[in-house]
Write a structure and sequence with these properties.
With 324 residues, this protein is α/β, with parallel strands linked by helices. Helix content is 38%, strand content 17%. The chain has 2 domains: 12-17 and 29-113 and 210-323, D-Maltodextrin-Binding Protein, domain 2; 116-206, Periplasmic binding protein-like II (D-Maltodextrin-Binding Protein, domain 2), CATH 3.40.190.
């Protein structure tokens, strides 16, 4: 059982929980151990989950949650194999997993707007997709997919844009090997340190968007243990509500999992992530079928998916709707 911590000002959501502290509280006799596979190292992008853990929201649901940083593994396969009870996947990896027959499903979208972006030096004056003509763009993994979709949507000739594999420290952007380099918007402070002032292209501003950091579990878990799924979603949802209301405080909770993380960087990450997590439309975590359908089409058009994946198979709003 984890010890609850209380740091700084108490947020509104937490005050509601504490207001009943004087009442007789029935605690579960045994806490159910839950393993969550993260999609990256410990980082403030998971602050909502950390808040739910550190402030005892999972504990209140009878859950003892362990977060496991990304091990460069197939998280969807490991989820199905039972290594994890919940994992964090990206929309493209979720769709690819379903295409191969893995029965995995999204429950909650941490990022409702895509954090994948394209950085360039301020002096290059690259401010719109058309400015990528005759430029070299460094990408890795799925960073290529929204780039191509954005260029196609804006009518930019792909043959006039050089899309190449990138490195990860932005030195090639600094020395002009690349004109543009992809990353997450959370990399902005790193880019600033290496290249100075920068511009950034957001695909969602040009009609290309999909969810990031989807909290997923298996169809079997949903069918056989819906009570557990509901408990996890309820605590996580409350954690994210409080994290967004208390950005700096929430970001620094990451240091409870990795004390080596830099406080300024953690704060930057959650500050730039917050508008993508809480968009002002619907509830935090909310998902829409059309987003999965549009992402499926993007991946089909680029030959990443070989067949259509039914959007109804890849996500459910059942649990989020219950806990709101």
């Amino acid at each position: 059982m984890k010890k609850k911590i209380f740091v700084g000002l108490i947020p509104i959501g937490l005050m509601l929980v504490l207001s009943f502290s004087g009442c007789v509280e029935e605690k579960p006799e045994k806490y159910q151990e839950i393993n969550v596979g993260l999609s990256w190292i410990h980082e403030a992008q998971f602050a909502g989950l950390y808040w739910a853990d550190q402030y005892g929201f999972y504990e209140d649901e009878g859950l003892d949650v362990t977060f496991i940083p990304y091990q460069y593994e197939d998280l969807a396969q490991e989820l199905v194999d039972g290594t994890y009870d919940f994992v964090i996947l990206q929309t493209d990896t979720l769709l690819l997993a379903r295409e191969t027959g893995l029965p995995v499903k999204a429950l909650f979208a941490d990022y409702r707007l895509m954090p994948t972006v394209y950085f360039s030096k301020k002096e290059q004056n690259i401010t719109k997709p058309e400015d990528l003509l005759n430029k070299t763009v460094g990408v890795a993994y799925s960073e290529r997919y929204p780039l191509v979709a954005m260029l196609n949507k804006m009518g930019v000739n792909l043959s006039l844009v050089s899309i190449v594999e990138r490195e990860y420290d932005y030195e090639w952007l600094a020395n002009d090997t690349y004109d543009v380099e992809a990353g997450w918007v959370t990399d902005g402070d790193t880019v600033q340190a290496v290249v100075g002032d920068y511009n950034v292209l957001h695909p969602y501003e040009y009609g290309v968007n999909w969810y990031a950091d989807l909290i997923c579990t298996t169809d079997d878990m949903i069918d056989s243990n819906p009570e557990l799924v509901e408990k996890f979603v309820r605590a996580t949802s409350l954690g994210w509500q409080n994290a967004i209301e208390n950005v700096e405080q929430a970001a620094l909770l990451t240091q409870n999992y990795d004390p080596t993380t830099d406080a300024d960087h953690l704060t930057f990450v959650l500050e730039v992530s917050s508008p993508l997590i809480h968009t002002g439309k619907d509830h935090i975590g909310w998902m829409e079928k059309t987003v999965f359908e549009e992402t499926t089409q993007i991946l089909l058009d680029q030959g990443i998916l070989m067949q259509t994946v039914n959007a109804d198979d890849v996500f459910t709003m059942e649990f989020l709707e219950k806990v709101l």
